[in-house]
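FAQ: What does the model actually see?

It sees only this:
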Amino acid sequence: GALAAALGDAVLLELVAHGPRLRAVLVRDGRTSLHDLGPLDEALGRARLHRFGLRRLVTTGDSASARAGVEFATTALDQQLFDPVRRLLRDRPLVIVPIAALHAVPWSGLPTCAGRPVTVAPSATVWLRAVGRIVPAGPPVLVAGPRLPAAETEVRQLGAALPGSRPLTGCAATADAVTDALNGAGLAHIAAHGAFRADNPLFSTLELADGPLTAYELERLTRPPGCVVLSACDSGLSGVRPGDEVMGFTAVLLALGTRSLIATVLPVPADLTTALMLDLHRRMHAGAPPAVALAEAQRAFDTAGGGGAHATAAAFVCFGAG
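And it is asked to produce this:
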């Protein structure tokens, strides 16, 4: 049907909690198959260790023990999630619909996903809806939040790489100005401090010149940007409500009509992020879809750097259509 046609060569992997087991529904070439991925609690524990290990690489430095911890957790999680379906995945692009508790996995940090176009969606329906959206034609909007010197540098360099873009920096980057500029933009890049509110994800914030912009306030947008890049700590994290309804910046923007969103699920060091973001935008400007551009930029960045670079690259996830 419509899902198979939209997928093309891509594979959709939807994770499902079934009692104490984790299962996967896989859609490939119009065929659907069900696979057992083992104990749910093991997958959740391994995912926590994987996140903890990558976070440690970023925050405490690239030590041998930190690397060893990441490698152990990475291998265990990758094998549990992908070994049962590996022969069906091959080297195809991947659409992942995780259970809510695995929404914040840094997927490209797993060997099976590294270098492969991967996009994450709250449901197959949300992904299919996003794929069909037309990207607005407005100029790129580039925003730098306060108390982040690297953000101004990032926006200045991106502006040189993206002709016709509209920069909002310093005192011009107010919540109202940014919200107005986002309406009808083909692309938006926001480099700012982000704070995730686990108790109320809709009040998660991006810090702008005159104070915080909440995920909730983005609901004022009438024509949301086609692609949004949030270069901010934990901006991609979403909370879970009953029924696996996911909330936060990712959920709000996708629900409003943004086609693709690239955001972080881990803290990222601003000094390392700029080079990755420049490469990402150059690839998208040359015509690569967001998920493809991100996978290629992550692979190049990871290869060139150490453990800190690996963790920084893995922190970014593509949500939506890809």
